[in-house]
Structure formats: C-alpha cells, structure tokens
Amino acid sequence: MIARIALRRAGSAKARMESVVEQLALPDDWTDDDFVRAVEAARERTMLLLPLPSTAAVGLCGVWFATESADVVFHRPAFDPAIRRNTIGHECWHVLCNHGSDTKLTPDELATLLTGIDLAEHGLDIGEFRAARGLTDYDDPEEYEAEMFATMIATRATPLAARKRDRLLRAF
Ligand SMILES: [Zn+2]
Prior knowledge:
alpha+beta
C-alpha cells in the first residue's frame, strides 16, 4: 500500500501523475537514486534495483517483483542513462499504483528470469515473490500509464538539469 502518497482517482491520467510527482518532492536535478529513495519512502518498503540477468527474454526491459517486505525492480543494464531512467520510471509507476501481477509470467518463466541472480545475497527468497509485472503490452491501460509516467519523469528531469546548466553558465 502507498503509505505517504495520496493517489487521486479522479482527473486525467496526466493530472494524477503530476500530483504523484509533486508528492515525491524530488530535489532539483535529482538522480535515479533520489527517485528510487523517494518511491521507497512513499511506500515505506525497501526497494532494490537489480540488473536483469543476460538470460532474460529479449525485449524485456524491466520487471517489478513485490515480495512481502520489499519491491524489487530489475532493469536491463543500459549504457544509455535515459533508457535506464525510463525503465525505472515505468516500473515505479506500477509500484506506486500497487498494480497487481500481470498474468503473463508463469512460475517457470519466473524461475528462468531469476536464474543467475543470487537472491540470498539480497535477502530474497523465491517463495516470497507475490506479484510480478514485466512483459509490456500497450493494450493494457496500466502499461500505457506506466509508459506515460516514465516519459513524464524523463522530460521533467531534462529541463531541470538544463536550467541548472544555464544558471551555471550565466554565472561565468
Ligand atoms: Zn509495465
């Protein structure tokens, strides 16, 4: 459950998302880590960011797993920080909205996906995994929203960073 964020039910998707971004109270020029810590604080649950193993299905960018005590976001290691931020933003929207499992991930697929990940090292147990979302289907409104939120997050970050640069440049 979201402890510290009031999710609006009414209004356009954009207005609802803007209200969430506002409540996350991100600092100027926030990093991915700031964003994850803000989501973590809002959820009052541990959040782990882990790289997807190289065996994960092609086309899979990110997966969110909910365990009893933690949210785990797997993302494909990307050289492009914009792709990484997009994946994190997308999965965090599912986390923030407490979107349930998509039914497309079978226990076998789950096991395959987690192959090569040392769960114990991160204090996780496969038996704890309650819900997972991963395979993106844009016909699903929750997927569409998650992607919209990721884009909003990404475009919010850029103007702020650019403004900071401008201020810095003006100072010289
Ligand atoms: Zn998704």
